[in-house]
Amino acid sequence: MIEQLKKHPFFSDKTIESCTLLEHQGYCNENYLLVVDGVKNIVRKLLRDDINRDFEWKVQNLAFEKGITAEPLVFDSQNGFMVFSFLEGEHKGKLDKSELKLLAKTLQKLHSISIDTEPIELQTDTSTIEHYQKEYVLCHNDLNPQNVFFSNDINFIDFEYTGVNDRYFDIACVCVEFGLDVKMQRVFFKAYFDGAYDVEKLEAYKIIYKTLCEEWFQKNL
Description:
This protein has helices at residues 2-6, 53-65, 97-111, 167-177, 182-192, 199-220, and strands at residues 16-21, 29-36, 39-46, 72-76, 81-85, 136-139, 148-150, 154-156, 163-166. It is an alpha+beta fold.
C-alpha cells in the first residue's frame, strides 16, 4: 500500500512514515492508519465496484464543508483508494441526552445539504410506507455507531450508501442502532424537528430499516 501511495502526486513532497492495517474493518473498504510527516490520516482501499465512488466523494466534500466529517485529501479512482484526515473521538453505543441532542443537530446539517440526484429505491417491500408523504433529503442511510465519532462535536464517516431518501429513514436508523426508548426518542425528535413529527411514520420506517438490515446481512455474510 505504501508504494502505491508514494506514486500519487499528493505525497511527492511528503514522507510516508507508516501505513498500518486497522484492527476493525468495514464491509466495503480496507482501512489503514497512515502517518505522513508526523500527521495521522486514514486510507480507505475501495473493495466493491457496485458503489458510486464519485458520488460518495462529492458528498464527503459537501459534508466536510458543513463541518461534520473528516477532510477529504485524495481520491484515486484508478488505483481505488481515498485518503482523509484522521478524526479524534470515540464510538458510543449508548447516548446521554446532551449527546443525543448534538447528534440530532449534526443530522440536521447533513440533511440540509442540497444535491441534485434522484431518490434511491429501497430494495425491499415498501408497502408500509407508501402512503406517507415523502420528505426527501440527503441521507447517510447507515448511521450505526461505528459510523459516528463523538468528541467535542460529532462527525459522520463512511458515506458509501449516502443518497436522497426520506429523512425518517436516517431518524429510524438512529433510533434502532442506538437503542432509543420512547423517552429518549422524544429528546431526539424535539432537538431535530422544529415542530410536529409523525410517530407512526417513524415506526413504519423502523420496520423498513430492520428488514433491510436483515436482508443485507443474509446477502453479504
